[in-house]
Amino acid sequence: MTSIGLRTKAAGSGSDPGSAPRRPQRSAWHAIANGVVLAWLALTAVAALVHHELPAPRWLLIHLFLLGAVTNAIVTWTEHFAAALLRIQQPPRWWPMTRLGVLNAGIAAVLCGVAEGFPLLAVGGAATVVTVVAAHVTVLAVRGRTALGGRFAHVVGWYVWSGAALVAGGTLGGLMASGRTPSGWHEPMEAAHAHVNILGWVGLAVLGTLFTLWPTVLRTRMVDGTGRIARWSLRAAVPGLAATVGGLLADLRWLAAAGLLLYAAAAALALVPFVRTLKQRRPHTPASWMLAAGTTWFAVTLVADAARQSVDGLLPLVLVGFVGQTLLGALTFLLPVVLGGGPAALKANAAVIERVWTPRVVAVNAAVPLLVLPVPEWLTRAAWIVTIAALGAFVLLAVATVTRTHRPSPVVAGITAGVLLTALAAGVAVGGETSPSTVAASGTRTVDVTLADMRIRPGTIEAEPGTRLVLRVTNKDAMRHDLRLATGEATPMLDQGESATLTLPPLEKPIDGWCTVPGHRAAGMTMKIETTGSGTPPPANHHHATEPGQLDLAAPMSPQWRPYDAALEPAPGAKEHRVEIRATEQELEVAPGVRQQMWTFNGTVPGPVLRGKVGDVFTITLVNDGTMGHGIDFHAGSLAPDVPMRTIQPGESLTYTFKAEHAGAWLYHCSTMPMLQHMGNGMYGAVIIDPPDLPRVDREYVLVQGELYLGQPGSTGQVAKMRDGRPDAWAFNGTAAGYDHAPLTARTGDRVRVWVVDAGPTSDTAFHIVGAQFDTVYKEGAYLLRKGDDGGAQILDLSPGQGGFAEAVVPEAGHYPFVDHDMRHGESGAHGILHVTD
Fold first, then answer.
1. Is the pLDDT of residue 165 over 70?
2. Beta strands 633-634 and 526-531: pairing type?
3. What is the pLDDT of residues 447-460, one digit of tens each?
4. How confident is the model at residue 610 (pLDDT cuts 50, 70, 90)?
5. Diameter of the chain measured on Cα atoms
6. CB neighbour burial string for 715-730, b if at least 16 within 10 angstroms, e if fewer
7. Contact, 746 vs 811, CB < 8 A?
8. Residue 290, SS3 per DSSP
9. What pLDDT is stored for residue 152 in this prediction?
10. Three-class secondary structure assignment of 470-530
11. Which of 27, 33, 101, 128 lies closest to 73, judged by CA?
């Protein structure tokens, strides 16, 4: 048996003698349809760069790619393959162009509706996309019944069920976009939506196409028995996908797992001809290498998904490794073929689109593991940059390939540009998913207000007197919230995704707003509408909150912020340690968007962590680079404080030598009076002296808990808060909620040891990891619990100046919050995330 002939002749002629004159028209149609695909790919790259959606792609980037580029490609190419393989009668000339225009209008409506907060527009767009795809596969099914059939008859079945999956997935997406679904349904619906679209709409279309496309790309024979395998694998894949989606919607994990296993088995069966063909001839062209790599990553995705029943954390693998490479590989082969012009043109077009393909393919496949593995963020970001660069290079080469053969008419170019620019405008305007803390407005203005993370954003709206404000309020939280204004306007209680609009009379005076759910206002869920003569917002680089809970800890950190490295290196082998520590004053970001002048050791809060073993000698040179006197006190040493702990003036230095006689997690801090102020402004750190025979663990971190007092250091207001023990926030390693934004990492089954030192200066801590149990606890030089004991522990409790460590084995992938279980502290900054991956 021979492979199908997707050659220039197949693109424009066949057994029908009347088909030859339509060749130029058909190739022009492919130039237009694939030009739209390339435009969506370009928008994907632009969105990633404009919104800095790296290293984690968000909703806009995902849907520009999957809904925009991939959906257009699937609709265009499934029709092409069905027609070419089954000799289906060509549709009326108006149908493909009408379908293209309506489909992309629906896609643009979904993007604009969700991004701009117009649920009806989003629902209408989703309904349009679903209707177009349903009509498309219905036409394929009806026309396929009158086709020749034969060994390619299975193709239509795969495409019809692929379209049915998009109908289901698009319906779920429209329901979520409407904001009318109960908040408890959102998570299972989102999981089902992702699976039915990725495994169904994309996966079934790809598997159905590979039966014939793969041997064609390799220019070899289609192996015997392919049709039989295609039919049987489809009969297993569809019920497997249905069970997966049903299990996710009903929260029946066993059913979802069983469905995924059945789908994976069906995919494995479907790929048998792929592997057998590979044995006949190895990849030798750019398209064949990309398709081989994409199929391999698809198999990896299925294995990982079957084990987890979740695509969380796998999206980069799906987007880049599987879908992206499969799409680009197919286009690399198919575009030169369908653009027409004869063998010489085909060869010339292929040479353009295949330029520098080797470094592009190698770079992308080297980047894929870095997108999903727990590597440093800079490495993940670099991998995304490589990926986007490779995508951009392909788009430019593909556009050059299309335009050298077909120049679009002004009408077609105008329509296409109008639809796509609408989507891009919506994405650029609001796709970043963050809100400024202050909005200035004048005249009549509509302001988007979001309720999430126990905050109302923006927290301040500034407008000139007489301004008519329209507040479009959306709850993006899993909890129910509302917004009530002091002037009486109020939204109903909103579930997740629901929106309401408040129209205010002309502004005359400042107005307070808050959430009325009990306790939410006190926790900081408030806003203020201010009147101003200039409409210019005040500087926002400093925050002067006076009560705990007023900081917006869920707001994004600034791009310049870098987390304190909590990873603890093993104790060095040397018995003597020489360290220079400099006392400086430094402005640091101590909470999201909040900068504060701090007194520091070596420019960080806490200062550098020192580590050694019992018997080690530490020689510390303290240099005062500040503007006031400072000293230093190491709890890890035992010696008369008169000389080594004395205060030295700016420009002076001293040498402090101590021997570590005892193991423990020890505090060091500034010894200059008043120590309350020096420690309260950041002058503290940790010394870790290992207990004898301390075993190695998989991950080891150190957290120094301290208190944050905002305001001018040493000012009357700040000192009053310190004396009353009223911090503005609590922090691990100097930044309130810092490790929410830069989680610590581990792998499933890792033993994690966390050293904790309570720097105070006034608060106890009750360290706890949510979802984990401690089997080892070491506090103040003694083991309270050892691995192998019958009991377990949940808290490592420490008073100011105390330290210790706790160990736990993280059992499964997920996000494990670690907190000070004194919830006043935990909810006010002493909180972080341990992100565990498989």
1. yes
2. unpaired
3. 889 888 778 888 88
4. very high
5. 105
6. eeebbebbeeeebbbb
7. no
8. helix
9. 64
10. EEEEEECCCCCECCEECCCCECCCECCCCEEEEECCCCCCCEEEECCCCCCCCCCCEEEEE
11. 33
d(CA 636, CA 615): 11
Residue 238: both structure tokens together? 């569809």
Distance between CA atoms of residues 692 and 113, nearest Å: 62
Interacting residues of 687 by C-beta distance below 8 A, sequence separation 6+: 609, 610, 611, 612, 618, 634, 635, 636, 660, 665, 666, 667, 668
Are 740 and 832 spatial neighbours (Cβ–Cβ below 8 Å)?
yes
According to DSSP, the β-strands at 684-690 and 664-669 are: antiparallel
Of 589, 658, 672, the C-alpha closest to 626 is 672
Euclidean distance between CA atoms 650 and 641, whole angstroms: 20
End-to-end CA distance of the chain: 44
Q: Which amino acid is at 708?
A: L
Of 423-427, 669-673, 770-774, the range with the highest mean pLDDT is: 770-774
Note the pTM of the prediction, 2 decimals.
Answer: 0.53
Cα–Cα distance, 66 to 770 (Å, whole number): 35
Q: How far is residue 30's CA from residue 330's CA, in Å, rounded to a whole number?
A: 14
Burial annotation 226-256 (CB, 10 A radius, 16+ → b, else e):
bbebbeebbebbbebbbbbbebbbeeeeebb
- Cα 338 to its chain centre, rounded Å, is 37
Write the single-letter amino acid at 764.
Answer: D
Q: Please, are residues 235 and 265 in contact by the beta-carbon 8 Å criterion?
A: no
Strand partners, 618: 577, 658
What distance in Å separates the CA atoms of residue 259 and residue 830, rounded to the nearest whole number? 41
Residue bearing the bigger pLDDT, 666 or 503:
666
pLDDT digits (tens, 9 = 90+) for 757-767: 999 899 999 99
Segment 613-641 mean pLDDT: 92
Burial of 409 (0-12, 13-18, 19+ CB in 10 A): exposed
Length of the chain: 838
CA distances from 498 to 448, 672, 678 (A): 13, 55, 47
pLDDT value at 398 more than 90: no
